[in-house]
Automatic annotation (TrEMBL):
Keywords: Cell membrane, Cobalamin biosynthesis, Membrane, Transmembrane, Transmembrane helix
Membrane topology: Multi-pass membrane protein
UniProt family annotation: Belongs to the CobD/CbiB family.
Transmembrane parts of this sequence: 62-82, 89-109, 163-181, 303-321
Species name: Marinobacter daqiaonensis
Protein name per the record: Cobalamin biosynthesis protein CobD
Amino acid sequence: MDWLPVPAAVCAAALLLDYGLGEPRRWHPLVGFGRLASALEARLNSSPSPSPSPSPSPSPGVGRGLLAVLVLTAPLTGLAWLTVSLAPAWLALVLEVTGLWLALSLRGLKEHGLAVAEPLRAGELDAARSSVGRIVSRDTKALDETEVAAAATESMLENGADAVFASLFWYLLAGLPGVLLHRMINTLDAMWGYRTERFLTFGRVAARLDDAMNWFPARLTALTYAVLGRTRQALRCWRTQGPTWESPNAGPVMAAGAGALGVTLGGPAPYHGGLKQRPVLGVGPRASADSIAAALVLVERGAWVWVVLYAMGILIMTGGHG
C-alpha cells in the first residue's frame, strides 16, 4: 500500500464496501448500542423533572445524562484504542476498514433519497410522502410535491454531513476510536437531544457534545458543497443565511448546500406540534426530484474528493513516501 497513505486507503475501502454492501440489514452494532442506551436511560432518567432548575447549580438531570454518556462511550472508545494499538497491523487495518464502513451511510442515504425522488418523478405523491416520512421528523401527510422534495433535499444535505463527512473527518483525525466515539455521541443525540420534558436536562450533555464534535466537520462539509457547486452563491448563502438557522451546524451545511445547488429550501414546515416558521435558505427555484438527486451527487463526489485530497496532501508532505 505504498502507493497510497494508509488512512486514505482505509477510507476508500470503507466507501467501496458501503457502495457494494450498504449497511448491515441485521445485527448492526449501532442497533445494539441504541438498545443499551435506551435501557440505561430508562434506569437513570426514570423521574425527569418537569422543568429546568431555576437555581444556578446544575440540574441533577444533567449529571445523570453525563454519567450515561460516560458509561456508554468511554469503555467502548478505550477498547477500540487498545485493540487497534495491540493488534497485528493486518488485523488493525481490517478493524479500521470495518469500523469506518459501519459508521458510514452513503448508500443508505442514497436509497432513502431515491425512494422519494423516483415516486415524485412518477407523480406518486402519496408514496413520496410515505418515504420522506421515514427520514424527517415533520408531519408529511399534507405536504405538496415541492415540500416533499425540499424535505428530502434538506435531509440529504444535513445527513451527508453527519453520516458521511463527519465520519471521514473523525477517522482521519483520530482513527477508529475517533469515528466510533463520534458515531456513538451522534446516536445519543438523536435519541436524547430533544427539548422535551423528559430529555431537556438529561440529553443536554449528549446534544452539546454532538454540536462540538460536528462543528468543524460541518463547516468543512459546507465548504465542500460550495466548491463542488455554485461556489460564490453557496458562500454568500452560508454567510448570510446559515446564522439564521436554529442549529449551529445544520445552518451552514444546508445554506451552503442550497446555494451550491441553486435551489430554495427552508421556510415554514408542518411538524406534529404545529407549523414551524423557519428561515429561507438558498436562492433559485423550489426543490424538486432533481434537487434530491443533485444533493446526493454533491455528497458522493465530496466524499471521494476528501479521500483524494487527503492522500495528495500526505504524499506531498512526505515526499511521496506515505
